[in-house]
Amino acid sequence: MAWTRRVAVALVALLAQDASAQTGNARGSDFLRFGCSQLVVERTDPIVNPGLRFSPHLHQIVGGSSFNVTMDPQTIDPPKTSKCTSCKMSEDFSNYWTASIYFQSPENGTFRRVPQMANGRQNGTLLEQEGGLTIYYMRPFSGTNKKTTVFKPGFRMIAGDPNLRAKASGPLVNCHRCLAKADRIMGGSGAPCDRSDTAEFPSKPCPGGIRVTVIFPSCWDGKNVDSPDHRSHVAYAPGNQALAGDKCPASHPVRIPQVMYEIMYDTSEFANPAYYKNGKQPLVYSFGDTTGYGAHGDYLFGWEDGALQRAMDALGTNCWSETCPALKLQSGEKLISCTKEQQAKEDVGTNTWLKELPGSPMIK
């Protein structure tokens, strides 16, 4: 991608911001970055499959405890309904979820869910979370207009397409980074979804894990909090990069905070070179995708009134990742303790080997 110098420098430093916070060297930035611990792993999806107790494939969910099979905005207001949040920002009761990854044994074809691990800080320590996701809210890295308009209650969207089995045209919005042991904490160098990353699963062992990035659209039509396909009300900015500047198409003129996920998968147990031969690799997404092109994420807004807008307006001054006076934080112990029981109860292969993927999606 043709990154501008400013964008490249800013994004290479994405993992460095927490080190600044820990040393007390708060500084301005164009994004928030914080960890969310695992809330639940189950087959539910209130955006794509509302009301369905067992959705077609498994998801890993973080955020507000009001997460439910049905998230009707007329009846569920996450900040008021949630008893806790598994995110570091205590005013954030949004829900964020992605598909799980499984290792399929080349010996007998059984499946084991690849565990998630906490993301790292530049100073070599881990974010306060167990598994889960790392969340970014970003304003434009380039251009002169830094203003963003935050989401309205009930807003939701998805990024990526689980039906893809070949590389999509246009900017890379979902990607995989294969980490060496030395990259375990730092996550490697370079901007997200740059030439170090691939749309497909890595074709070699990743002893330091795999970092999956999901980048959401940055422009909104200004009217609808959802759409039938959960995509049409939002759009990526014009150009050849997913991480956007301050421009938006006329059809979607409102610049919203750009949401990005990082999911760290611990593939160290499955990094045997014998698993990667003759063009094959042993990983599969929970919806049956062995290519990796179908990586995707779901987002459901649930911040308390005004909190996210305060933070976005404060970016560029003394608001830097978790060092942001505009927001309230909670302890690592508290966010990690925010979990809930499965609504769709089943063995998901966390500590066992499964004969089939949950929901038995076709492998392709």
Automatic annotation (TrEMBL):
Instruction: Give start-end of the signal peptide.
Output: 1-21
Q: Where is the DUF1996 domain?
A: 45-303
Regions that span the bilayer = none
Q: Which residues form a coiled coil?
A: none
Keywords from the UniProt entry: Signal
Checking InterPro entries in the record gives:
DUF1996
Task: Tell me what this protein is called.
Answer: DUF1996 domain-containing protein
**Taxonomic source organism:** Lasiosphaeris hirsuta
